[in-house]
Design brief:
The structure is a single chain. The chain is 63% helix and 3% strand. The mean pLDDT is 89. A hairpin with a 3-residue loop joins strand 1 and strand 2. By secondary structure, the protein is mainly alpha-helical. It has one domain. Strands 1-2 form a two-stranded antiparallel sheet.
Amino acid sequence: MLKNSRRRYGLVAVLLHWIIAVGVIGEFALGLYMTGMDYYNRMSQFLPYLHESIGILLAGAIFLRIAWSIANPRPAPGSGVGPLARAVSRLVQFCMQLLLVAIVVFGYLLSTAEGEGIPVFDWFTLPALMDTEIKGEEDIFLFLHYWLAWAVIALACLHMLGALKHHFVDRDETLRNMLGLGNAD
């Protein structure tokens, strides 16, 4: 089943969730590694190119997931999920999506700050939409991109802890549903 049902996430939602999860973790690790690189590192040209290319593809998956989640309502929470837990879960998920969009925007602004587009694996170039001349703009964009990434990782850890709580403490279907293993309607 491609679409979400009343009790279970569909294949598209599950695949987008895990593609984005793995992509965000990989991009975070790569970005963190790059912060410790110096200019003379032989990878100092390739890794930013790789980070930007993956980031643009990941941005596409993020926007697709947001559109998909608007068009396909999520399954109803289990009967044991109270209103407070439901509200916290939705807030964390909303904040993660908002922060992911912000990270993409600031990463794009950082990468195009000099007016040059972003080559994506030499398949195509995402053009620079504006060439501002704000003093220190690259530092501002880098600061926001970096710290928002840490915020997403913190929220993702909360999200994972919540999923593990559902599985091991509450013993409900939440984690199994997100793995695509839950009971069908």
